[in-house]
């Protein structure tokens, strides 16, 4: 497929498949897998295809739930090379498979109804976990850029909220409510209408974790089937960032996932404000 290594397939069982937002634009799918230890970093993904079907192209899905595996402990810089050589000589450590349930947020398209309409109890083929995810540990922790990361900015549009949710709930961002000693965090999340916004029910939970949630609606005048009338921020995510600014750019890091235009504009604004380029993180 051109993305990552060739897939190694194993079976996954559908636990649930529910509508993720009032418009029905996305579904929230839960899969039970035999081994969740490989999923260690927010932003990692898997390929999924119909069980035993070689004619349907697999879909690439970022895992939306928190990681179910344990990442290795960081190695001090001076000992990194020695550890890499020792690990190479010893070979990979055997791990005991641990069953897990992963959640995915899937935008409906013209050619993926086989998975957006899948029923609980059905099985699918799931690849090994792929990608390195957001390189949080390497770029936000420690003093790689001389200034510690004290502020985390999150940016997502549409179903791009999936890996951002994983990061929020992973505890790897080291965020906490104001006055608790951890990092501050703001999430800018953009969709077309209020009815297109998944995870609204999680916003209060994320706020308790220390995330200031800033929903941004690009077409607030479009009628919503739910009857929702939007009175919050409007425009695009990059507009909201421009309006708010970055209070402590040298001590800030960012995670981005969404449409190309948003990612490019936000990255440009962050760099111009003084955020280190290495702290503007993507999961691909």
Note down, in words, how this protein is organized.
- The chain is an alpha/beta fold.
- It has helices at 80-90, 113-116, 136-139, 161-170, 203-209, 237-244, 260-273, and strands at 10-19, 26-33, 45-50, 59-62, 100-107, 123-126, 151-157, 184-191, 211-217, 233-234, 252-257, 280-281.
Question: What is this structure's SSE topology?
Answer:
Elements: E1 10-19, E2 26-33, E3 45-50, E4 59-62, H1 80-90, E5 100-107, H2 113-116, E6 123-126, H3 136-139, E7 151-157, H4 161-170, E8 184-191, H5 203-209, E9 211-217, E10 233-234, H6 237-244, E11 252-257, H7 260-273, E12 280-281
Parallel strand pairs: 7-8, 7-11, 8-9, 9-10, 11-12
Antiparallel strand pairs: 1-2, 1-6, 2-5, 3-4, 3-6
Helix pairs in contact: 6-7
Keywords:
alpha/beta; 25% strand; six-stranded antiparallel β-sheet; six-stranded parallel β-sheet; 284 residues; single chain; 12 strands
User: Using DSSP, what is the number of strands?
Assistant: 12
Sheet having the most strands? 6 strands, antiparallel
Low-pLDDT windows of residues? none
| Share of helical residues | 10-25%
Q: Specify Rg, calculated over alpha carbons.
A: 20 Å
Shape: globular
Order of helices and strands: EEEEHEHEHEHEHEEHEHE
């Amino acid at each position: 497929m051109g993305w990552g290594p060739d897939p190694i397939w194993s079976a996954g069982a559908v636990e649930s498949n529910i509508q993720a937002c009032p418009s029905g634009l996305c579904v929230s799918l839960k899969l039970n897998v035999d081994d969740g230890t490989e999923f260690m970093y927010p932003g990692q993904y898997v390929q999924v295809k119909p069980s035993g079907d070689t004619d349907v192209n697999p879909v690439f899905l970022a895992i939306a739930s928190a990681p179910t595996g344990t990442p290795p402990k960081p190695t001090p810089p001076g000992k990194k090379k020695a550890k890499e050589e020792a690990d190479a000589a010893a070979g990979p450590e055997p791990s005991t498979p641990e069953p897990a349930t992963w959640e995915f947020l899937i935008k409906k398209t013209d050619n993926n109804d086989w998975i957006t309409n899948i029923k609980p109890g059905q099985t699918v083929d799931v690849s090994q976990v792929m990608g390195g995810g957001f390189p949080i540990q390497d770029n936000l922790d420690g003093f790689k850029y001389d200034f510690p990361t004290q502020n985390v900015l999150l940016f997502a549009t549409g179903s791009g909220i999936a890996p951002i949710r994983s990061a929020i709930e992973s505890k790897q961002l080291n965020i906490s409510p104001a006055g608790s000693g951890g990092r501050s965090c703001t999430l800018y999340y953009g969709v077309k209408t209020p009815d297109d916004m998944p995870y609204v029910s999680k916003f209060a939970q994320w706020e308790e974790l220390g995330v200031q949630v800033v929903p941004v609606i690009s077409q607030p005048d479009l009628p919503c089937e739910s009857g929702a009338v939007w009175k919050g921020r409007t425009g695009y995510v990059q507009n909201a960032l421009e309006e708010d600014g970055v209070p402590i750019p040298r001590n800030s890091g960012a995670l981005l996932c969404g449409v190309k235009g948003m990612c490019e504009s936000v990255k440009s604004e962050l760099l111009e404000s003084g955020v280190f380029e290495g702290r503007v993180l993507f999961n691909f």
